[in-house]
Design goal:
74% of the residues lie in helices and 0% in strands. It is elongated. It is an all-alpha fold. It has two domains: 2-29 and 46-82, no CATH class; 85-207, no CATH class. Helix 2 (15-26) runs parallel beside helix 4 and helix 10 (165-177) runs antiparallel to helix 11. It starts with a helix and ends with a helix. It has eleven helices and no strands.
């Protein structure tokens, strides 16, 4: 986004129009939302001068617009490469962001368990230096970054219920890696929690 703003040349009233045109050419989605307009009374804007001045940037902008569109491929190669992917593959890619977010969050919890097992003394230095503790933090950072990207393409009411799958992943690997016992009450409790999150997310999504 900052790279796009850097390409805006106008410094006066025309900058917002230029920004929207450039944003559309870059593939950004432009949304409209209502605002409450409150008239401030007197204004120093001269409509004749503004019309003349705002009309002038239009000519060099049109001349340079084609060049700017070509430059955006170099400035944002990742977005340009993604635009060439077929819609079906895009949806698979977007949904994989949710899957990876689930796996990274579960991985953080599992590494946290390993850290608790391997740390013999309760010391801040020993805890921070523990490899499993560091991996747990790395997984949390990756989860936060990927989850944010997933929310760009999906509404929260759709994506958030999938996070409840983290509990099932951790429960499954806790039995394999740590030989913890899984009872029917564990599974039933997670199912109830997941259904509650699903119902709450759907109801909030309908309200908004």
């Amino acid at each position: 986004m900052f790279e796009l703003i850097d390409t805006v040349q106008d410094k006066h009233w025309f900058w917002d129009t230029e920004l929207m045109v450039l944003a559309q050419s870059w593939g950004f989605k432009i949304k409209e939302f209502p605002v409450v307009w409150r008239h401030g009374g007197a204004t120093k804007v001269n409509l004749k001068k503004r019309h003349f001045r705002d009309g002038l940037p239009d000519f060099p902008f049109k001349a340079k617009f084609g060049k700017t569109v070509k430059e955006k491929k170099q400035l944002n190669p990742a977005r340009d490469a993604l635009s060439k992917i077929k819609p079906e593959k895009k949806q698979i890619f977007y949904f994989s962001l949710i899957i990876f977010s689930i796996l990274f969050q579960a991985g953080s919890g599992i590494c946290g368990k390993y850290a608790a097992i391997t740390i013999k003394e309760a010391s801040p230095f020993i805890t921070i230096a523990n490899i499993y503790y560091l991996l747990s933090l790395v997984f949390l950072v990756l989860q936060a970054v990927i989850w944010q990207q997933a929310l760009i393409h999906y509404p929260l009411s759709y994506a958030y219920p999938f996070i409840s799958l983290v509990n099932f992943v951790i429960l499954f690997f806790s039995a394999i890696l740590f030989h913890e016992q899984i009872t029917r009450y564990n599974v039933l409790g997670l199912i109830i929690i997941s259904l509650g999150i699903l119902i709450l997310s759907r109801s909030l999504g309908e309200e908004t």
